[in-house]
Write a structure and sequence with these properties.
224 residues; mainly beta; Porin; eight-stranded antiparallel barrel; two-stranded antiparallel sheet; 9% helix; 50% strand
Length: 224
């Protein structure tokens, strides 16, 4: 009897050792994916500064024109507010309201380009973006249109290099529509805060302030 007991114990120990020898430990490493800071659907609030560079029918965007009646070459500065809605990760719609202007550069008695002005602008945008989540960057394209309205120098009183009439006659109200194309870049600091800058070209068939403009926006974007 003792012999059978000893034999059984030895067999059990051998079986346990065999199973222990064939067992392998495995650890599956699961990579943790960093969340993308750009949501598939989000609402954005933009606070921005704006620089407006006007060329007109002749002249240069950045060099003041002192030989014609154009307002070219002297930038106007301002800012605005915008709201965007992305209904999918790559496509969104936006609307913005901005105001910009410049001060008079002279006495108001020589070239019309020396006069200051203030313009309001309402703009609608179709936004196409491509988020690069690993860098927290999103380059984007802008296509859209809008309208500008406000006071501009009254060229009707312009005669032989001077503006005739009283100060009140030197300005007139003007409004016109425009189309625009452009592009920019956004850097998302957190899921809710981003920094952006873009440049767009405004064009119009109407001869006036909205004809041949470049606008530079720069600002902070809050996303929800």
């Amino acid at each position: 009897m003792k012999k059978y007991i000893i034999t059984g114990v030895m067999a059990a120990v051998a079986a346990t050792s065999a199973f222990a020898g064939t067992a392998t430990a495995s650890k599956e490493v699961v990579a943790v994916e960093e969340p993308c800071l750009f949501r598939d659907q989000e609402i954005q609030l933009d606070l921005f500064g704006l620089g407006d560079f006007y060329k007109g029918n002749s002249g240069n965007f950045f060099i003041p024109n002192t030989t014609s009646r154009q307002l070219s070459g002297r930038p106007a500065w301002g800012g605005g507010l915008g709201v965007n809605y992305f209904f999918m990760k790559y496509v969104g719609l936006g609307i913005e309201q901005s105001v910009f202007g410049r001060n008079s550069a002279g006495t108001g008695s020589t070239d019309i380009g020396n006069y200051g002005y203030t313009r309001w602008q309402t703009t609608g945008n179709l936004i196409l973006r491509y988020p690069i989540c690993s860098w927290n960057l999103a380059p984007y394209l802008l296509v859209g249109g809008g309208a500008q309205y406000g006071n501009v120098p009254n060229s009707a009183g312009y005669t032989s290099g001077t503006l005739s009439g009283t100060t009140g006659q030197r300005y007139r109200m003007s409004g016109q529509g425009f189309g625009h194309v452009g592009g920019g870049l956004e850097y998302r600091v957190t899921e809710n805060i981003g920094l952006f800058s873009d440049l767009r070209y405004l064009f119009s068939n109407v001869s006036g302030l909205a004809n041949n403009q470049m606008q530079w926006r720069y600002g902070v974007r809050f996303a929800f």
